[in-house]
Amino acid sequence: MTRVSVLAGGVGAARFLDGLVRVMAPQDVTAIVNVGDDMEWAGLHISPDLDTVTYTLADLVNPETGWGLRAESRRTLDRLSELGGPDWFMIGDLDLATHLYRTHRLSQGDPLSEITRDLTQRLGLDCRITPVTDDRLRTVVGTDAGELAFQDYFVRRRASDAVRSLRFDGSDSASPAPFVLDAIRDADVIVIAPSNPFLSIDPLLSVGGVREALGQSKAPVAAVSPIIGGQAVKGPAGDILRSLGHDVSALGVARIYGELADVFILDEADARLASEIESETEMRVVVMPTLMTDVEAKMSLASGTVRAALDAV
Ligand code: FO1
User: Fold this and answer.
1) What's the farthest any 2 CA atoms get from each other in the chain?
2) What is the pLDDT of residues 157-169, one digit of tens each?
3) How many domains are there within the chain?
4) Domain presence at residue 158
5) 177-188 confidence digits (pLDDT tens)
6) Domain for residue 77, yes or no?
7) How far apart are CA 35 and CA 50, in angstroms?
8) 205 alpha carbon – ligand 1 mean position (Å)
9) Whose CA is nearest to atom 12 of ligand 1?
10) Residue 311, strand partner residues
């Protein structure tokens, strides 16, 4: 039995986890998921990263976007738009059911982690998916246009503003959800998924005790680079590395993870950076294909990452 805990954001993490549950016993896999992207939309609580991970593992996700449900329609959104309601965030008719269910349970006082557990069980998933915290955590993006709520920056303004700063509202008082610290302490391997280090991993680590637990864990920590050939596979990681003054490369990411991880998984396209990363950080670098183009690629990245982590101990 090898217990693997994964620090996870949205689409990249979901794809990695999809490979992982096919090469490990799903019961031994825990996904600790970012909730800094959460927002209130038309009175409903939306948890995009939790849903992206859950829908992907349940084979329900829209394969084109990587988020939302497959074969989705938007009649409710169109009607809402006609009424003058918020229409810039694509909530599909079927996806809406998840948000109604979650918001209703939250209004009854149920914690997000319990609601997530029940949703994942309903969808027949055997792995554990948990929000990093049951408390309110919101990523706030500092731009030249002022501070923006995460989804305002990301979706409404299409991530077009240069990011000058980031803060995680609520992190001062947020505590880890039940099982989060145990999942880190009891893991045999910890993986930092190929997610955005600033928008997905930092908010997770800002929750009280999570970074410390990672530092104290005896398990090897492997970080998978979300940057391949100097570019983010998806999303604004490259732009944010640049605007915050980091190297726009896997080396820039490696410097960020240098204190946290023991192993850095680098794509073949960046193999020439391996020795520089190893000499600048304490991490051992393992080179392998990291682009998750199909199920086989996801499985081989997941098994290669776990193997690389276990080899490091
Ligand atoms: N991303 C978009 O780019 N546009 C959208 O309209 C959008 C809607 C949406 C609805 C539900 C959901 O679970 C995710 C959604 N996403 C959308 C993705 C979301 O913004 C995620 O936070 C990002 O993918 C970052 O992980």
Assistant:
1) 59
2) 999 999 999 999 9
3) 1
4) no
5) 999 999 999 999
6) yes
7) 7
8) 21
9) 48
10) none
